[in-house]
Amino acid sequence: MKGSDVMLFLVDEKEQKVEASPYAATASVLAKGNQQKTVELKPAGDNKLAAKIDFPVDGKFRASLTLKKGPAEIGKARYNLDTK
Is the pLDDT of residue 1 over 50? Predict the structure, then answer.
């Protein structure tokens, strides 16, 4: 997974796209060897926040994410995804 993109797509409660430019996110990712790494997701056009992963992970991509609009924290989520 090293060198992969991490993407977060923003939608509202009606599944409509939300413009990503006023948002940012921080992800705490479990890297290989149970190390915690922090990744900053930035606006990447349309309704997408994105970042590059420059470290390896073991089997699954596990992350706790905090979404911010300006300085205000507006949401949290956890992800546990297969990388295969």
Answer: no
